[in-house]
Amino acid sequence: MEAQTEQAENNLLSMILKVDNEQKLGNDHIAILYPGKLLGDADTGIGTIGRIDQANIAAGATIKMHPHMNDDILSYFRTGKVKHTDSAGFTEFISRNKLMLMKSGEIFYHEEHVMENMEGLQIFIRPQIKDDRPNVTFADLTQPDSNNVWRVLASSDAGSALQLSSETWIYDMTLTSSDVYSLPALPKENLTGILYAFQGELLINEMLKLSKGESVIFKNETVSFRTDTAAELVLFLTDETAPFYAKGMYSGNQNSL
């Protein structure tokens, strides 16, 4: 009974924390966010959200055939074109208008060749179970931007075009006006979220300023935001109490960092 009471109290705790670019790892080509590191936790991820990479890679680069294990990877490229080739002999092109979700399961290999200068996110989500069957799915976007309205990119909900196995929801929105906006209706209570500024600048709750690549981590907080120019946002939600496998190759807890 005491443990249940403590869990209930933890679920009600509120939090909002800014993540500066200086707190990220990586290099000139890939900026890596391990969201859990910023909370001082033993886990480098937060719930199902293991790692978020913002990549900026010039045309001609090739990331040669390499493995993934127990990572669910959403490729969300906002500019450029990338050729995906995998160990199942499948080839497809990822671009501003086409998303890819690769569930590596027990093990899966792929290669990426950058056809045109690209900038985008590779998002490493923790699967629900270990060693599931590998699977790659694609989704065409009817419009490259979702202006001033939240759009679901991938989720654990049945019927989602890109369906995640763990309790995770990923949205995007392009802000084109200076109006004040808020979060979408949350699919569950007590979710933890990351609001990420992919491009542009934001003002959160009229007090926290975000620049490109920065974010806020929040839980049980009212979050509003606006921009004076334009901005591209990505929103991540996770249920930290739902089951997930936390030892994936890249999405898993990276204790040595």
Write a structural description:
- The protein is built from 1 helix and 19 strands.
- The relative contact order is 0.22.
- The termini are far apart.
- Mean pLDDT is 92; it is low at 1-11.
- It is mainly beta.
- 4% of the residues lie in helices and 48% in strands.
- It is globular, with a radius of gyration of 18 Å.
- The protein has one domain (2-238): Jelly Rolls, CATH 2.60.120.10.
Strand count, sense and barrel status of the largest sheet are:
9 strands, antiparallel
- The pLDDT mean sits at 92
Could you estimate the helical fraction of the residues in percent?
under 10%
> Radius of gyration, Cα only, in angstroms?
18 Å
Named CATH architecture = Sandwich
> Going by CATH, what is the homologous superfamily?
Jelly Rolls
Distance from first to last alpha carbon: 36 Å
- Overall tally of domains: 1
Shape: globular
Q: Classify the beta-strand content into a percent band.
A: over 45%
What is the number of helical segments per DSSP (H or I, 4+ residues)?
A: 1
Broad structural category: mainly beta
Element pattern in H and E: HEEEEEEEEEEEEEEEEEEE
Q: What is the CATH class name?
A: Mainly Beta
